[in-house]
Amino acid sequence: MTFSFFVEVESWPIAGSFVISRGARTEAHVVVVTLSDGSATGRGECVPYARYGETVEGVVATLREALATYAAQPDRETLRGAIPPGAARNAIDCALWDLEAKQSGVPVAERLGLSTPRALVTAYTLSLGTPESMEQAARVAAHRPLLKVKLGGDGDRERIAAVRRGAPTSRIIVDANEAWSRDNFDANMRACVEAGVELIEQPLPAGQDDWLEHADRPVAVCADESLHVADDLGHLAGRYDAINIKLDKTGGLTEALLLRAAAEAHGFALMVGCMVGTSLAMAPAVLLAQDAAFVDLDGPLLLARDRSPGLVYEGSLVSPPSPALWG
């Protein structure tokens, strides 16, 4: 049976701007794959990420070439071997999971053994800014149980303390996006200890993180940019205490499930995160995150508007997807 497919680029405005150590954005540019067998339709969304050498145009070209090549039989395992990990494979992989659920009438959650997936508390991200602006943002978000704080290297001790003043009762995790150095690591770590931070994402640049093996880590350190797929885990032992699984890094739910199992076997704590995208991108990740220690699936909360139907967010509580959305 030959499948028809569509590849579309969409832009979704961000509420305000989203600022990390590598720059700022006011729009989320996503790529959506739609697959159909004539009676059932499946969709998947990805977010091309420049940090990993991806562009919207390049991802679209990869998708169209792959789908044209494998349109007669676009199974997940074949595509997993044919397309490298990343955004393009994620969109196809998740579209196929959705299509298979629609064809069979068996939801993805049931196929994963999740008879009753539960709503999860997601982190809510505070963009990088001055200590004063971040303290004010923390005050506005202080009702949320878990905050994720974007950091930038110099001045992070002041930022961490400011966010704690603004949100005295929220749990806090921080994300340096590779912006720390060996010179400021210890001082920033002490600031995290003093503020009661529970997790530090990717403090050092990927490829320059071997020093973490010898660093004092009183707060758990989580690999993000240093980790993509299960084969990456071997060199992370001793450097990191946790890993952040993102579907746009693994190349979809299929590889993410393998990574999750391997990470658990290695004793890593699990975080499931996201790029800034719509509910369609978050939906499979909500199922993946059911047993994760930390959940960071707030992409739609950072947008000025989301697609409809979307995930249901009640404050920081995100519910599993409805079949009308995905899966």
UniProtKB/TrEMBL annotation:
Enzyme Commission (EC) number: 5.1.1.-
SUPFAM superfamilies found in the cross-reference section: Enolase C-terminal domain-like (SSF51604), Enolase N-terminal domain-like (SSF54826)
Domain Mandelate racemase/muconate lactonizing enzyme C-terminal: 131-222
A GO molecular function held by the record: L-Ala-D/L-Glu epimerase activity
Note on cofactor: Binds 1 Mg(2+) ion per subunit.
Superkingdom: Bacteria
Pfam family, one: MR_MLE_N
Cofactor requirements of the protein: Mg(2+)
Keywords: Isomerase, Magnesium, Metal-binding
PANTHER family, A to Z: D-GALACTONATE DEHYDRATASE-RELATED, ENOLASE SUPERFAMILY MEMBER DDB_G0284701
UniProt family annotation: Belongs to the mandelate racemase/muconate lactonizing enzyme family.
Protein name: Dipeptide epimerase
